[in-house]
Design goal:
19 helices
Amino acid sequence: MASIAKYFELKKRGTTVGTEVRAGATTFLVMAYIIFVNANYIGAGAAGGAIGAAGAPSAEAIFAVTALGAGLLTILMGVVANYPFAIAAGMGLNAVVAFQLILGLGLTWAEAMAVIVWEGIFITILMLTGFRKAILEAIPLNLKRAIAVGIGLFLLLIGLFEANVIVKSFAGTVPLGLFSGIGFGGTEIPTADLPHLAIFGAGLLTALALIRKPGGLLISIGVGTLVALVLGVSSIPSSFVSPLDSSNFVGIGQAFGAMFSVWSSGAGFLAVALAVFSIMLSDFFDTAGTMVGLGARAGLLNSKGELPGANRVLLVDSIAAAAGGALGVSSNTTYIESAAGIKEGGRTGLTSVVTGALFLCAVLLSPIAGIVPAAATAPALVIIGYLMFEAIRDVQWKDATDGFPILATLIVMPLSYSITDGIGVGFLTYGILKVTSGKASDVKPLFWVSIAAFVLYFLVKLGIIAV
C-alpha cells in the first residue's frame, strides 16, 4: 500500500487510497452509460446504428469491446499521466463513424475504423513533435477559463437532458423543450416521464444536501437507483454475469486491413482526407478543453492555466484515439464526466486505475452496470456543472475583445452540444475582434494556426467544402 501511495503521490496531492477508490467508483457510475449507448448507437442492426455497414460487429460485441477499451486506456492514463481522467469511446465521434463515414461516404466498417486509426496516428505525431502542447499554450488564459466554464454549462445541460427535464427537438441535437411535451405543442408532463423525474429529483436533492460532503455524489446515485428499483424503472437482474464469447471481439483489428485501401475507396481521396482532418481537429480541441476544465476543477493548473505534465495526458489521449479505431469502437477520448470523481476528491491516477478496473469488470458484469439508470446519474452531472461554472468569477470581462469571445464560447458550447464548436466560435470571434480593434499583436502566432484550422473545420461542417 505504501508503494502505491508513493507512486501516485497521494500525500503530495492531499488525498488517500480510500478517497481515490471512492472517486474512481463515482466516475465509473457516471460514465457507465457509454458502454450501452455506444453499443446501441453503432452496433450493427441497432436502432440508429450503422445499419448495413459491411463487416460491422454486433451490438453485443461493441458493448464488450467498448468496456474493454475504456478499462485498459483509463488504467493507462492513470499509470502514465497520474491524473484522475477517464477515457472511453467519444460520444459525437461515434456519430461521425455511423452517419458521416459509413452512411454518408459509404465506407465499410473496416474503412471507417481505418480513418479513426489514421486520425489517431496524425494527432500522436503532433503530440510527439511538441506542436499539440504549443498550440494549447498559445490559447489566452481568459479563453482557457471560459472553456472550463463552458464545459460546466455543457455538463449541466447533459444532466438535465439525461433526466428528461429538457428534451431535444426531433429535428436536431439541441434540447429545446421542457419534458417530453412542453415546448413541442404539449402542455402537460407526460406520465411516462414522472418516474424518471422522481429518480432525478431524489438524487438531486441528496446531491445538493451533500454538495460539499465526501461521497455525496455516490450517495445521490445510490438514492436515485433505489428509487428506480422501487418504481420499476430498473430491476435486479436474474444473473449478474453476462456470457463472454470470442465473437464479441471480431471487430478488433479490422481497421488494419483497410489502412491503405481506404484512400482509394469509392468516397475518394479528398473526402477521406477531409474526414480525417475534421475528426482530428474535433478530437484535438475536445481534449484540450476537457483537460483544462478538469484540471481547473481539481485545482491542478498552474498560474498560466496550464496542467503540469500535460504531455503525458496528451500522449495517452492520442494513443487512445488510434486504439479506439483498432479496437473497432470509434475514437477514444478523455471524458468530462471525470469531473464526478474529481468532485469526490480524486486527485491522482489511482482514481483512473479504479475506474478502469470497474470498466474491465463491466465486460462480464453488464447486468449490474445496467441497474443504474441515466436519471440516477444525471444529478451528478448537474452538480458538477454548477461547481465548474463557479470558475466564472475568475474570468475578466472589462475588455470587450476578450469578453465577447468568452460569451460566444459559453453560449455556443452547450447549445451546439459540442465542445469543439464552442471553442471554435470563441477562437474565431477572438481573432476577428482583435484585428478590427487594432490589437492583433495580442494574438500569438500559433493561435492564428488554430483559427485557420477552425475556418477549414467550419467550411467542411457547413458543407461549403464537400466531404
